[in-house]
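Worked example 3. Consider a protein that binds magnesium ion.
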Amino acid sequence: MGMQDKAIALHDVDLSLGRGAARVHILKGISLGVDRGEAVGLIGPSGSGKSTLLMTMAGLERPDSGKVIVDGTDLSGLDEDALARFRGRRIGIVFQSFHLVPTMTALENVALPLELAGEGEAFERAEAELQSVGLGHRLHHYPAQLSGGEQQRVAIARAIVPNPAILVADEPTGNLDETTGQSIVDLLFALKRDRGATLVLVTHDLALARLCDRMVRLRSGQVETGAASAVA
Ligand code: ADP
Ligand code: MG
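Given these inputs, the predicted complex is written out as structure tokens:
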């Protein structure tokens, strides 16, 4: 398969962030393909560049050099508006700390991406999505009134409500207890199974990484190759 057939293809991506003396060379020559419908666990030590790589795949960071091709589209060819529209339709992003709007209810948070995209029936679809993640009884609660696991479900509902083919999540179980984390894992893999979604999950949780079709291990901004990154 060529790069155009992949859900995500990175070719020799380099990225630095920060200014002046604080500038850090974070991603160093990353090449990586993710097949459609594949689940990839992105692992590696803290500071190795996992979050930055995820944001680059999602088009929230632009590489200094190299190519990022998502769903056959070279992201470098899109201006900021086109990139935002592309992201809104194709890529669901679950941030590490949820990033919910505190002044909006669960329902309003989940409806927001549909409203921003000018899509119809935003509230009906948001309600259905909250029901699908088991939160039909929390529609009118504000984030501060929800547990960590419930906030994570709202964040996932918001990410998947536009029906993106690709879902990326940064340590989706990182802030949750084991039981709550397991229910989030079940939810993510149900998306892969039922909707054929491509998953890229940053995780420290080896059990979660092992559920993925493949692990990719980062070390100091590079993909570690060889037996160490094979799924045991
Ligand atoms: P991980 O998710 O694997 O812990 P990150 O991608 O968050 O790693 O960060 C990789 C490295 O880049 C870290 O050393 C971090 O301090 C640095 N870094 C991240 N964001 C910035 C930024 N905006 N400016 C400067 N350095 C950054
Ligand atoms: Mg991180």
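Take a moment to read the result before moving on. The domain at 36-63+80-223 is CATH 3.40.50.300 (Rossmann fold). The helical segments are 50-57, 80-90, 106-116, 122-132, 148-160, 178-195, 206-211.
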